[in-house]
């Protein structure tokens, strides 16, 4: 069984102007609160980083699901919309994962997304913790 571990360190004020860097230097991002929440918006935020990781991982899980069924997906895009909710000093996340595929029918894409949602490590890690909506857009 193969495994992979990476280390990312955040310094400064975290999402309020901090900086996150990976041990190999490939990730180096400045954080800023989004304009929509009263921040400067001149950096990334944890929700964007979650969306980037999850959409990339889910895209790979779609490939695995399609391969298991011997289906050719064609061109595929995956978008992760991550929402940070806040109410009375309580914060939580929700997500919409949307996949567009050019070579499969709608019903097939829905099934593949459901399979991918069972395979994707991000989906597994968040299962039961945040609301997730899957949206399929086939050609």
Descriptive overview:
With 139 residues, the chain is an alpha+beta fold. It is 31% helix and 31% strand. It has helices at 46-68, 106-119, 121-126; strands at 8-11, 19-22, 28-30, 76-87, 90-101, 131-138. The chain has a 3-stranded antiparallel sheet with strand order 1-2-3, with no helix packed on it. A 3-stranded mixed sheet has the order 4-5-6. A hairpin with a 2-residue loop joins strand 4 and strand 5 (90-101). Helix 1 (46-68) packs across helix 2 (106-119). It is globular, with a radius of gyration of 17 Å. The chain starts with 7 loop residues before the first strand and ends with a strand.
Strand content: 25-35%
The pLDDT mean sits at 95
- Please describe the biggest sheet, giving its number of strands, its sense, and whether it closes into a barrel: 3 strands, antiparallel
Uncertain parts = none
Rounded to the nearest angstrom, the radius of gyration is 17 Å
Q: Rough shape? A: globular
Lateral arrangement of strands in the main beta sheet: 1-2-3
Secondary-structure content class = alpha+beta
Number of strands: 6
* Tally of contiguous helical segments: 3
Distance, first to last CA: 37 Å
The ordered H/E elements are: EEEHEEHHE
Helix content: 25-40%
Structural key phrases:
139 residues, alpha+beta, three-stranded antiparallel β-sheet, three-stranded mixed β-sheet, 3 helices, 6 strands, 31% helix
Write the layout of secondary structure elements.
Blueprint: E1 8-11, E2 19-22, E3 28-30, H1 46-68, E4 76-87, E5 90-101, H2 106-119, H3 121-126, E6 131-138
Parallel strand pairs: 5-6
Antiparallel strand pairs: 1-2, 2-3, 4-5
Helix pairs in contact: 1-2
């Amino acid at each position: 069984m193969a495994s992979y571990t990476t280390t990312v360190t955040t310094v400064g004020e975290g999402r309020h102007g901090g900086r996150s860097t990976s041990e190999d230097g490939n990730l180096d991002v400045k954080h800023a609160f989004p304009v929509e929440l009263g921040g400067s918006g001149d950096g990334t935020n944890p929700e964007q980083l979650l969306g980037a990781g999850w959409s990339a991982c889910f895209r790979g899980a779609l490939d695995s699901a399609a391969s298991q069924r011997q289906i050719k997906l064609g061109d595929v895009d995956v978008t992760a919309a991550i929402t940070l909710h806040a109410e009375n000093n309580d914060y939580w996340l929700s997500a919409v994962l949307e996949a567009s595929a050019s070579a499969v029918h709608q019903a097939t894409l829905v099934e593949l997304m459901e399979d991918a949602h069972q395979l994707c490590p991000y989906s597994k890690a968040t299962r039961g913790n945040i609301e997730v909506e899957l949206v399929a857009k086939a050609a």
